[in-house]
Specification:
The chain is built from 10 helices and no strands. It has 189 residues and is mainly α. It has 2 domains: 3-88, Orthogonal Bundle (Rna Polymerase Sigma Factor, Chain: A); 99-186, Arc Repressor Mutant, subunit A (Orthogonal Bundle). The protein is globular, with a radius of gyration of 18 Å.
């Protein structure tokens, strides 16, 4: 844990609310995207994120530092989303929001932007079609950009299990894509 983060945590534990805002400011957008991807609703995601941040603030004295602060608060957000999901009895959880597939880059043509967006949509559809434990680990690694250690802490599994699930998830994704004849675009076969 960085020295600045330790100092902020210390100030938060002493009751400094401004320090808490500063502590979570760098993580807020990533946590919001995670909530959006799980809940498929920006409004619900914002509500759940606010609830999770408040829960984390109230429970800051329980943070032991065994993992990074981001991993700890990420787990709170994921758990709040799952609780919300269960209470709403909705059908999808832990998927990548297809709206993230819209790619635009001013440096390339509109036609190329459309092609990239279609490829991203296709890939997201394939990821969302995987079994939950494999979809979840791919999303954490490549969409949420978590390290093996952070994924292990969030899922409460060892790093070896993270690595083996990630390997299996990649293989399943590869087979799914190759099965549709689009493999040359993603894999050098």
């Amino acid at each position: 844990m960085a020295v600045a983060e330790k100092e902020l945590l210390s100030r938060v534990r002493e009751g400094d609310g401004a320090a808490y805002y500063e502590l979570v400011a760098d993580y807020r957008q990533r946590l919001y995207r995670k909530a959006c991807s799980m809940l498929q609703s920006p409004d619900d995601a914002e509500d759940i994120l606010q609830e999770a941040l408040l829960t984390a603030y109230r429970a800051i004295h329980k943070f032991r530092g065994d993992s990074s602060f981001y991993t700890w608060i990420y787990r709170i957000v994921v758990n709040k989303c799952r609780d919300h999901y269960r209470s709403q009895n909705t059908r999808k959880v832990d998927t990548v929001d297809p709206s993230v597939a819209i790619i635009t880059d001013d440096r390339i043509s509109q036609e190329k932007n459309l092609e990239l967006s279609e490829d991203a949509s296709y890939l997201i559809g394939k990821i969302n079609g995987l079994e939950k434990k494999y979809r979840e680990i791919l999303i954490m690694r490549y969409y949420d950009d978590l390290s093996y250690q952070e994924i292990a802490a969030v899922l409460r599994i060892n790093q070896g299990t993270v690595k083996s699930r990630l390997f299996k998830a990649r293989e399943l994704l590869k087979r799914s894509i190759l099965g549709n004849g689009r493999g040359e675009e993603y894999f050098h076969v």
